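#onboarding

Welcome to the new folks! Below is a worked example of what a typical request in this channel looks like: someone posts a single protein sequence, and someone else replies with the predicted structure as tokens. Don't worry about understanding the tokens yet, we'll cover that in week two.

Example request:
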Amino acid sequence: KVLEFKDGTEGDEDLLEIEFNEEDWTKPEGSEWYYYNEALKADEATNPLIESVVFSGEAGNEYQESKATIYVVAEAVQAKNNGETVLEAQGWTTPVVEE
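Example response:
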């Protein structure tokens, strides 16, 4: 994530609070990745991972009109005959950390 002031300089990205959808997505302890809990059929989409992005109450007026950019990296693996749950599926580039 990157936080940019109106003039193009960078702000403190730690002042961004991101709320994730942890009902439909799982983030194993020790992992930086979220995994969608259900296998998708062709042309289906996931429910959103990010529910909201807000500034911490510690952010001052200098953050008005600033811009937050959140970079997302996505992966997919075959679901059929590949484990009973998303955490058992094989083929992820980044190994799943067990909970």
